[in-house]
TrEMBL record:
S-adenosyl-L-methionine binds at residues 19, 42, 103, 121, 145-146, 166. The record marks 4 as: Interaction with substrate rRNA. Keywords: Methyltransferase, RNA-binding, rRNA processing, S-adenosyl-L-methionine, Transferase. It is an enzyme of class 2 (transferase). Monomer. It catalyses: adenosine(2030) in 23S rRNA + S-adenosyl-L-methionine = N(6)-methyladenosine(2030) in 23S rRNA + S-adenosyl-L-homocysteine + H(+). The gene is rlmJ. The active site is at residue 166. Its EC number is 2.1.1.266. Pfam families: RsmJ. This is Ribosomal RNA large subunit methyltransferase J. InterPro entries: RlmJ (IPR007473), SAM-dependent_MTases_sf (IPR029063).
Amino acid sequence: MLSYLHAFHAGNFADVQKHGALTLALSMMQAKPSAIACFDTHAGSAIYDLKSDRARKTAEADLGVQKLWASRNSLSSGDWQSVLKVLSRFNAGEGALTVYPGSPAWFRQFLRPGDSLTAFELHPTESSQLAGWAADQNVRVMHEDGLKGLLRQLPPAQPRLMALIDPSYEIKSEYSDVAATLQKAWQKCRHGVYLVWYPVLTSGLQATLKQAVKDSPLRKVWCSEVHLKTPPERGMTGSGMLVVNPPWGFEDRFSAMIEDIAGESALGLSHEHGWLVPE
Ligand code: SAM
């Protein structure tokens, strides 16, 4: 049974890291004109109301994207500008943000003619909201398991590939399922750029995913982990991204982005990064 709903978490510090990485990787790939097939294996419902009861119940965006937005005039990394531009397109005015775009909406903002986006979502209500949003967006929505769906679609028609794999990890086996899917996807499309999100938990369950990736034939896997400087006693204390085949120079530019928002007056994070598996 699927009980996770992203509306409770949209715009939190993990989304800032994840959507910042997505924006940077996609715009770096688009420095070349050849078309990109984009896949979003766990898409959610695309648009989130930050004033909704669900969002206000946890108020997670207050310590995530709202902090980013409040510090927007003092960010030194130019790479945040594309992120801020997208946020301002969804929000009128200068005050706190009221709308937060989910991953398919981030992808959609950057698609060029020739690029494509396929978004998978298994939860029935989330999937129908996603399909409603996608109807006039030239985005293909598939109401099915995103890991199996991704593998079925590879290799894509376009010469290049970017896939975001962002499960809710409600089921413990998802850590090893993600690693197995990543390996199979890479074997079908070795040049693809794959972004995998995972939670950093006090239970340490994320180690299963990282170890399985280390033990696999995958190469060139960069890892970024942000850790809350004031973490909760239990649960999610940080957020991790694996980036397979990052565009050249991505690691330095993304690290600079995170450094920019890490301070106590911004998101209050520490950043650990490096190659989980080198070339
Ligand atoms: N990627 C979204 C974003 O960044 O805005 C957030 C996704 S949320 C973390 C995970 C989503 O995966 C949930 O909406 C959940 O319903 C969906 N989901 C869970 N299991 C799935 C599966 N096997 N295949 C596709 N979607 C699934």
